[in-house]
Structure prediction request, 578 residues.
Amino acid sequence: MERVQCDILILGSGGAGLFAAHHAYDSNSKLKIIVAAKGLVGKSGCTRMVQGGYNVVLNPNDSIDMHFKDTLKGGGMINNQELAWTLVSDAPKRIRELETKMGCFFDRNPDGTVHQKAFAGQSFDRTVHRGDLTGIEIINRLRDQLYAKESVICWDEVRAVELLYNDNLSAIAGCLMLNLRNGKFIVVESLAVIIGTGGGASMYKIAAPSLEKAADGMAMAYRAGANFIDMEMMQFHPTGLLAENSRLNGGVLEEGLRGAGGHLYNSLGERFMQNYDPEKMERSTRDRVARAAYMEIMAGRGTRLGGIQVSVAHLGRENVLRMFPGMVDRCKDVGRDLSMEPVDVSPTGHFHMGGVTIDKDCFSGIPGLFVAGEDAGGIHGSNRLGGNGVADSTVFGARAGDAAAEYVTTVKRQQVSESQVDQFVHQLIQPFKREKGENPFQLRKEVSDLMWEKVGLVRNGPNLKAAIEKLAEYAERVNQISVAGVRDYNLAWHEVLNVKNIVQIGQMIAIASYSRTESRGSHYRTDCPVTDNVNWYKNIFIKQGQKGPETEIHPVEFTHVQPEEIFGEVARVKVAAS
Prediction:
């Protein structure tokens, strides 16, 4: 078994992971830093898939306070306000760093200022972008700049499987890794570990994250004893591309289509958003539009492919080709011309607002463990605004890198617990020792169907209770899976690891959803269809107990803004969920 030592181990190479690497190196260039990706560093992950852009206050007519209040309003006032304030106040620094230090080229106005476009839920047009493929620009530049930083080592196709404590179990001292190419384990001893693996929505039948995602970072943190917040809050993007018999199902068509004036239609040709949000129509927030689309589909007004349709053809072919070249190309992959015809889309599992509880420097509460990006929770409350995601990754990735670099100067290197290493390796190779057992791919399909049908966009108590019971059964069945063949590039073996992680996170989502007896933001229950501002300005915390996930419920701390400043006279009453 290979053994490697480093100062900081970064799991994930999206916006959070790469920004963490840059900031840790810039804090102390003598640190040995490893960036490990389950895919290819700079070529995989969710930040690279970002299309719409990056919310940031740059215009003198905009303000940090406006961005902050938009974020709280979108989040239903259950955000951690310290984290939300950190997001909006740090974003201008990060966008300038991306431009002047990393070399990103964002779209410009004729006068040379950075162009900012409209996005849903924003009171000001503040979304910076590079055409409609902003994530590629950001990740390419972040990866390019790492080549000059010799003490930063990048590992491709090496996945993290378990966090490792020190001998007395008082701090994280490393991680057990697995090389996908040769099937060999690697024990990494590290003074600090930063989790930034992202992509928690891949447990749903229709989902947007890149294919390698399986909530690995959150699942490892859960097994290591981390505390989580608001795991019931899973965002579904309204417009995931649909195609017949294709794995492209769920890939997002960006929110800018709606922001620019795109229309949504059901199979009857009706712009159905007039029945759900007649004031904002298609520019309503993601949770409202996604739920409206889902309800239209479930009411029998869906298309032949089981979705709705988005159309921007009325904006003019030349305008569409100029504004959305990436989206036009994406639709061409499934035989549709976005510039001239409607395209079938569906709500798609997109972003997890819940995650590991952190402070503003990404400390998890477990010594040695920092968490940034989608693996962390609390920033976005019950619903993330479009354009706040990549801002989240870069803002908190930078803070994680800075904090980890400072932390490692205060601690001594400790050996990892050898008993943990032996225990984990023994568990991980068990599927090879079973001659007959469960098929991991079939079990993964069952999990994704269950999550979509019972823990998806529209929920209710009986379905959630049934899902909790079924997920407990799946957790047992994971331990009965068998795989054959050699360990190098064994996709079945890696699917075992994937399904184990998504079942664990799925259990947390279902339990938290059952606990929140109201509808708020992305969490909608037909048996509790009111937003209960009397009883539910609360966060649900969850962590591993002796018999599985255990919850605690605590009031939200309004450290900056009271609900009345956002919602006015309905701030303390029960209102119909919108």
DSSP finds 15 helices and 21 strands in the chain. The chain has a mean pLDDT of 95. The first strand starts at residue 2 and ends at 11.
